[in-house]
């Protein structure tokens, strides 16, 4: 992503807006960040800029909540000014939802930590290498403890000995890089640890939940913009002597998609409001998990189907790269996978409905 | 120094289409924006206040309740308080009635030094409200201003656009200025902290009842 865009986000004070003013943020609630996420997706339906925004917001928030004072002072102001980026790195080549099987390891060596392994399908690797910054990263410290033996830490990528990046080309979100990095005997200072040792798995989920709530609104924003484009098109485009917007086949789809996207917005804002409530001690983490999973489980699917219908209305033009909506179509498709797949969201909902005795995969 | 800015919320003419049958504007679904001439006026107003280092800016509009969003933008751009003059009784006002109503609002505010207006609004393009307002207030006016060079508590130096170039004029206060942005003007987008601060600034809504009482005293 061109640095100009990141600096412009900083100029409008959108980066890290939930972070406390002590670290140069605005200290807004997360609902306000949700409004920004939705509007950014309307402006960039490809979802590239929204991804940079939501990842920095979510893991900046985790760093602020659980990071050491030295790390916060060192990292957050630079990220908020757009001088560096903050990313998230948990996924590995064959490890996505099953984080307990992660292979990357972290161990203590004197007053440092040493990391070995690899991360893959990570957003913002090229940006972190080029501009500075790093990724909030998850690795195993105590392998026999599974998810109870993981550490979360900040891993700078630029000029770090032992980091070798690789890149893949996404089918959408073209303005932000996707890739991975090998980690070979990389040393980080103690103060980059986020939270306590072996608690990383639980801490990282607080970031994921915020990111999922913001993603739900990114999907709503991209789909709303597509529907607006679609409405303008079906009023103008004629077939069989009248605007195609006069046909029931079009109107029914329009109405169905509009209701879904409005319902999605309600779900998503309720979810972020619940997140805010939890931060103030007025809701439980379980309530947050449920509300967020409900919104994220349907967001990319409903948004994708709405955008797909808008492309269908536009006929052959809708399948060309001249059509703006195909960018949104490719962009929101990523979110059935990113930050927790749609299937994992359903497992969370079922877990809350059935109780822990019915936890899947245990 | 007391500065007052009069603004208007207008349909974004870049988004307006013309009905091919009736040849009237199709306003349905067209977003409303702060009149770009008024945005320039507000930005100059804020700049003058910052250069002088003291004073306050009241921003006024007459319009429907949804004009609130244009006033909120002005507050985010640096105005200190907003006044929305809104009542069904004002619907359909022509330029004279609008100027008269604005003049009553300004008289209610009390003393002032400069009234800022955009030269015209992009929907009607009349350029009449500013001059009519100056007349109603009984103060001098300068129109087609593209730059305010020097401003102090007693006088200001301004650049007035002409067909051949510009004139440099001096004006005593109080005065009404109608501003015309230069072609190079790029509207400022306020940062998030200014948008959030705007929500905490005074926002007043005045209706026709207030006017009836004032009319009896003023007319």
What does this structure look like?
The complex is a heterodimer of chains A (362) and B (219). By secondary structure, chain A is of the alpha+beta class. Chain A has three domains: 3-85, Acyl-CoA dehydrogenase/oxidase, N-terminal domain (Butyryl-Coa Dehydrogenase, subunit A, domain 1); 87-197, Butyryl-CoA Dehydrogenase, subunit A, domain 2 (Beta Barrel), CATH 2.40.110; 201-358, Butyryl-CoA Dehydrogenase, subunit A, domain 3. Chain A has ten helices and ten strands. Chain A has helices at residues 3-11, 30-43, 48-66, 69-80, 125-131, 200-236, 248-279, 285-313, 325-333, 342-354; strands spanning 85-89, 105-109, 112-123, 133-140, 150-156, 163-168, 178-189, 193-194, 238-239, 242-243. Chain A has a four-stranded mixed beta sheet with strand order 1-4-5-8. In chain A, a hairpin with a 2-residue loop joins strand 2 (105-109) and strand 3. Chain B has 219 residues and is an alpha/beta fold. In chain B, 32% of the residues lie in helices and 30% in strands. Chain B has helices at residues 36-52, 68-77, 95-109, 129-137, 192-198, 208-218; strands at 2-6, 9-11, 17-18, 25-26, 32-34, 56-62, 81-85, 114-118, 141-151, 155-161, 166-172, 175-179, 203-206. In chain B, the strands form three sheets. Chain B has a nine-stranded mixed beta sheet with strand order 11-10-9-12-8-1-6-7-13, with helices on both faces. In chain B, strands 2-5 form a two-stranded antiparallel ribbon. The longest helix of chain B is centred in the first third of the chain and has 17 residues, at 36-52. Chain B is globular and about 50 Å long. The mean pLDDT of chain B is 91.
SSE blueprint and pairings:
The complex is a heterodimer of chains A (362) and B (219).
Chain A lengths: L2 H9 L18 H14 L4 H19 L2 H12 L4 E5 L15 E5 L2 E12 L1 H7 L1 E8 L9 E7 L6 E6 L9 E12 L3 E2 L5 H37 L1 E2 L2 E2 L4 H32 L5 H29 L11 H9 L8 H13 L8
Parallel strand pairs in A: 1-4
Antiparallel strand pairs in A: 2-3, 3-7, 4-5, 5-8, 6-7, 9-10
Helix pairs in contact in A: 2-3, 2-6, 3-4, 3-6, 6-7, 6-8, 7-8, 8-9, 8-10
Chain B lengths: L1 E5 L2 E3 L5 E2 L6 E2 L5 E3 L1 H17 L3 E7 L5 H10 L3 E5 L9 H15 L4 E5 L10 H9 L3 E11 L3 E7 L4 E7 L2 E5 L12 H7 L4 E4 L1 H11 L1
Helix pairs in contact in B: 2-5, 3-4, 3-6
